[in-house]
Amino acid sequence: MRDSYLKQNPLCANCLRNGKVVPAEDIHHKISPFKGGEINWTLLLDPENLESLCKECHGEEHQKENGYRSPQEIIDALDAFFSDMDNEDN
Asked: pTM of this prediction?
């Protein structure tokens, strides 16, 4: 299933969303089928739950699942926070 999905979706989905064309090397489950100690076979085999990613994006997705936030996400959150504070002062 992995090889078939990768052949049909050979480019990194995250990079494409950001306007970059990068070959995918990994298949990522959008919702992990392995949480809770048992395998959720429906999620594991559902092609709608898959996306092709490059190694870098795949690593970032797993870091996010573990609570990691990229520097840009932190900057964006701070910008929004201070913008909201400025709007409250006006």
From this structure: 0.67
